[in-house]
Design brief:
Order of helices and strands: HHHEEHHEEEHHHEEEHH
Structural class: alpha+beta
Distance between the termini: 42 Å
Number of strands: 8
CATH superfamily of the largest domain: GAF domain
Number of domains: 2
CATH class of the largest domain: Alpha Beta
CATH topology of the largest domain: Beta-Lactamase
Strand order of the largest sheet: 5-4-3-8-7-6
Largest sheet: 6 strands, antiparallel
Helix content: 40-55%
Number of helices: 10
Radius of gyration: 21 Å
Shape: elongated
């Protein structure tokens, strides 16, 4: 039988996580008073929770009495990236894709219900899209690799993903309608390739193909990005490169 005392640690943990979320969303940080008002907490409770977070380096109190994220949060971010292990063989495949296709190559994988970029093979001659780096990926509904991976989800999982992340309009070409997105995903399942042109960023395009486990389940995607004009002029070449790369990566995946 649960008591209020049993619930107290859970309630405190929830409040701590909410503080980290709110502070992390504010580049200039927040004062204790702003946090108390935002989260509807008493001043005493707010200072107690802030003291715990500062003590463990998850937050730092600046000279202007604002709280910002601390070193421990950065350590967690590095730990996440370190866990996205990519074998040398897979790295080699992506580097070869980049060189043959003359475009940066990406590998994305599932992290629970989320999608993460596990590796980027770029170079000074073929730079990555600036917003894409190793770690959790957002806006899956408007990226080619995201469409590949969302197409693997059943209706309930897709609804859960959209409820959590939404479908924001990033460009005039972004697909934000759930009905249109589901129709796109039906096409992706049929063709086993996904394309987006100027949905994620103006003047850019991306093409992706699924990475499969030994049992045939989609566990990730490989993709290539380029300019929209370049994609139009050599779409078939890029499709061949990404399908071939996906097959080789699938062969080299450890699961």
């Amino acid at each position: 039988m649960s008591t209020r005392g049993d619930d107290a640690p859970i309630r405190s943990a929830d409040r701590v996580l909410r503080i980290l979320d709110v502070v992390g969303a504010r580049p200039d940080g927040m004062t204790a008073g702003e946090l108390a008002e935002e989260l509807e907490l008493s001043t005493a409770t707010t200072y107690r929770l802030l003291g715990t977070l500062v003590g463990h380096d998850y937050l730092v109190r600046t000279a202007s009495a604002r709280y910002i994220l601390g070193r421990a949060v950065d350590d967690l971010g590095r730990a996440v990236r370190a866990q996205l292990v990519v074998t040398p063989e897979v790295r080699g495949v992506l580097a070869a894709m980049r060189d043959s296709a003359r475009a940066p190559a990406y590998l994305t994988v599932f992290r629970g219900d989320d999608i993460a970029i596990a590796h980027v093979a770029d170079s000074p001659a073929h730079p990555r899209i600036g917003q894409l780096h190793v770690g959790f990926a957002e806006a899956a509904h408007v990226t080619a690799f995201g469409k590949i991976m969302l197409a693997e989800r059943d209706d309930a999982a897709l609804t859960r993903y959209l409820d959590r992340h939404g479908a924001a309009r990033l460009t005039p070409g972004s697909v934000t309608s759930e009905a249109r997105l589901r129709a796109q995903l039906d096409d992706v399942r049929a063709q086993q390739v996904a394309v987006e042109v100027e949905e994620y960023m103006p003047h850019l395009a991306c093409i992706a193909a699924p990475v499969r486990s030994r049992t045939g389940r989609t566990i990730g995607a490989v993709s290539l990005s380029t300019t929209a004009d370049d994609f139009t002029s050599r779409a078939h070449e890029l499709e061949k490169a990404v399908r071939r790369g996906a097959w080789h990566v699938s062969s080299g995946m450890p699961v």
